[in-house]
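=== Structure Prediction Worksheet ===
Name of assembly: unnamed complex
Input type: mixed (protein and possibly other molecules)
Chain count: two
Listed entries:
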Amino acid sequence: MNYRAALQRMAMVVKVNLAYRWNTIVAQIAPAITALFMIGLLRVTDFAGPAVAPASLAAYYCLLSGAVGAMVPAIWPDVFAEIRSGRVIHALVRPFGYVADLVWGGVGSAMYKLASGLLTMGCVALIARPALSLSQLLMFLLLAVPALVLSTLLSTLFSLSAFWLLDDTGPSFFVWYLAMFSSGAILPLRVMPLWAQRAFAALPFRYLIDFPVTASIGMLAPRSVAVGLTVQVIWIGVSALLISLVWSRGLRRLSLGGL
Amino acid sequence: MAHITVDNLAVTYHKTEPRPGLTGRIADLFSPVRTQVHALRGVSFVVEAGECVGYIGPNGSGKTTTIKALSGVLRPSGGSARVLGYEPIGRDPRYLAQIGLILGAKSQLWADLPAMDTFLFLKEVYRLGDAEFKARLDHLCELFGVTELIRTPVRLLSQGERVRMQLICAVLHGPRVLFMDEPTYGLDIWAQAAVRDFTLKAVKELGTTVLLTSHNLDDIDRLCERIIVLNEGQIVYDGKKAALRAQFDALRKVSISGDAAAALKDCGIPREVLDEGPEGTTFIVGADQLGAVHRAIGPGASVSVESVPLEYMIRKLVGR
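=== Predicted Assembly ===
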């Protein structure tokens, strides 16, 4: 693996995002407003019930405000547009493959989004004053890294559907919407009915938001954190394997059918 | 030593033919109509190290398909291809590090970033040292006259400037084999000249092997001693340009101005008219008929006689 090229690719994505000026920050405003709304709602209603303490829930939404943009699989990248523009062909003829290009670019993009999310997270913390310590925030940032990797891999996996559909926006929207619901981006999973918790536990999305957030604010026992980390790593491996399979199929289709 | 060996290479793929009308398109969702396309039908040739070969033919003849197959993008459905001893479709990183691909109409630059960022990425991809990278980049920027532009976002560059940056991307790592597909596409005459100068230098000074496709026959004429002409996926000519010229040595291209051209109307000299209008006429005629042409138009008429252009030869070869 050419790690210097990977780092350079990540740096390029950050530079592209910086070229878009305040674009990412603007996108972060919506989750921040939602988080403030949910924290406000918590103060006037008991929507979470006895499952979660209100103070923990406020901390949950504060972290969520900066993490959603980075950790929920985004509709990115538009693979078929990249096939049409020639970027895929150019990537195929250099010793740093297209998938590496996608994955490292995606990780760079997610890290940039998380970094800019810290700003909105700070604003939410200043306004709502949740019970969130610095050590919890650091723990969250640590646990966010594998979540970002998993999110990027899932984005990449679904974007490869462009080889069959010519346009990946359908599957990408599907996975984004499903992920919003089942990752804990709207409600913590433990607030949901048991059947929903069981169903969502079988999907990888809970390891994007619910697991890193609940683990960092102390809602999970140490043993559950260890199990969660293991399952997260397994999902990363499974996603990477699936990407490899789908990519080889897609590439075969591409290389047989022309570009 | 052969750098490119192509033996009976065939590329066949299926394409879906959309049915007409809305109901036809809905039916396509369930049972698409597939037709087979034979892009290449058993192409064979060898390119020696340091050769610059013009690979030409009309649209759809299979030129770009060949280049994609040789650069490992397309999987051949038959035959074999070896470049620098590697099977291209294996996309061995050691192979990819030794080839360059220029697709005139397609870019690997990031529109919102300066070209320098792409160059820095390619430096790491090809594992170039700092000094080597700087020397190559300085040389290429000077050659293409873009030194002042490499820190400008690509979207703010003109089409010609972008193509020049694209060329630098393709050759920054010093490839041993260069596949050039329409390299002068969209370039002004100065940039076209720079591309030609660069290609000549690459071939003569660095010994780079070049396979060049272009609809601009000036590129081919100035750069390539040998040409391969392709039509409908098959080679119709493979040889020295001089040998092709020799085949047409008995013909001349004659251009005559308006007034004198009228005198030729009913003279009975067998000729193939290429262009006719109020300004004059241009035609191909046997060299042995030149005396008769001069007699027919009389003295004082404006006449130019040239050897047959490459474009005419290619048209004859492909029969269009």
